[in-house]
Amino acid sequence: MTRRPYIYADNAATTSLDSEALDAMLPFMKETFGNPSSLYSFSRTAKRALQNAREQIAECINALPEEIYFTSGGTESDNWALKGTQAKHILYSAAEHHAIINSCLALKNSGKRIKKLLVNQYAQVEAASLSCSIKCDDLVSIMMANNEIGSINDIGLLAKIVHGAGGIFHTDAVQAVGHIPIDVQALGVDMLSASAHKFNGPKGIGFLFVRKGIKLVNFMDGGQQELGNRAGTENVPAIVGMATALKNNCRNMPNNAEKLSRMVCRFQKTIYQAIPNVTWNGDPANRLPGHISLSLPDISGESMLHLLDLRGIAVSTGAACNSKSTRISHVLKAIGLSRELSKDTLRISFGANNSEADALTVANEIISMYKKLREK
Ligand code: PLP
């Protein structure tokens, strides 16, 4: 029996490693393994690679190289941005990732004032709601794109409101970096979190952009790496892989966005024709490329996930980090989706490695599993 190829449609959870990124990483695990902080010539290649990677990443988001701090990923970047500031009052949106929500809860336990901002039906923070809540010296953290339903926030406008009130603005851009154009100057953000494994880089590496002049307390104490702000010997191979993957993703962004938009159209049209009472979640006009969240009435998302898995298709019921939990997603709750429909929700996130044929296969398999489950 020939096995059907597996269709991976959960790119919001993680992505495959860019082969050019892997090629760029290998020499730093083999021949040029030196510690970039060492003084002898053998380590100079690693030191130079680190600087090149910092410059490449900075260029991709229009930052200065010295504004890029390497971290272990999105979770660390988010923790550092929130726990490293001196702000006494922190505002965050109800649709944030748990890296932000749980950091805020930890800060609350240590005496900081925190406030959750409500979101609209697309999980976006509206300007009016932010304007009413912000005070001078507040730190505001609002994600650029939502990991469960893909909606994109108007970050430029929100950052302007925060600055107008004298606050600092952080955005968790983990789902957005490498997928939509980002210019930190045009957006006016003070801090931005990113994670390489979401844009075809390796896992366990990311960065935090910190605008020059923004003061952050060290997250890791130790040596003088990262301008003395984040101690620990740098993971040179992963950093080089991250920079290569980001550069490639940014270069291919327009083509990928067009291809992904065709896939989403094809998928939605096919599903809609067979299941007209489907609910689509997320902002139809402002969503991450390739990202789809749908709720199929009376069909458990988890049952659908397992049936699709048996058919060789990987999708998610919500955020990747929640996939073992049966708790209703806080994002779906925040957008006002009923408890029943929240349980019936699937997240499909196509990537550049998928084809239109994949999109059609996934849609047809969902339709056939839907009919099967309805019959039961
Ligand atoms: N923020 C968002 C929006 C995410 O989607 C994720 C991961 O799913 C994270 C933060 C955490 O990133 P990492 O997996 O690199 O720790």
Question: How does this structure look, described?
Answer:
40% of the residues lie in helices and 13% in strands. Strands 2-8-7-6-5-3-4 form a 7-stranded mixed beta sheet, sandwiched between helices. The chain has a 3-stranded antiparallel beta sheet with strand order 9-10-12. α7 links the parallel β6 and β7. The chain has 376 residues and is of the alpha/beta class. Pyridoxal-5'-phosphate is lined by residues 73-75, 78, 97, 99, 143, 147, 172, 174-175, 195, 206, 320-321.
Annotate the secondary structure layout.
Elements: E1 7-8, H1 19-29, H2 44-61, E2 68-71, H3 74-83, E3 89-93, H4 98-109, E4 113-117, H5 127-133, E5 139-141, H6 155-164, E6 168-172, H7 184-187, E7 191-195, E8 206-210, H8 236-274, E9 279-281, E10 291-295, H9 301-310, E11 313-314, H10 330-334, H11 339-343, E12 345-349, H12 356-375
Parallel strand pairs: 1-11, 3-4, 3-5, 5-6, 6-7
Antiparallel strand pairs: 2-8, 7-8, 9-10, 10-12
Bound molecules: pyridoxal-5'-phosphate.
In the predicted model, the low-confidence regions spanning at least 5 consecutive residues are: 319-323
Q: Please state how the strands of the largest beta sheet are arranged side by side.
A: 2-8-7-6-5-3-4
Global structural class: alpha/beta
Sheet of most strands? 7 strands, mixed
Number of strands: 12
Tally of contiguous helical segments: 12
Topology order in helix (H) and strand (E) letters: EHHEHEHEHEHEHEEHEEHEHHEH
- Averaged pLDDT: 95
Instruction: Tell me the radius of gyration.
Output: 21 Å
Proportion of residues in helical segments: 40-55%
How far the N terminus sits from the C terminus, by CA atoms, comes to: 29 Å
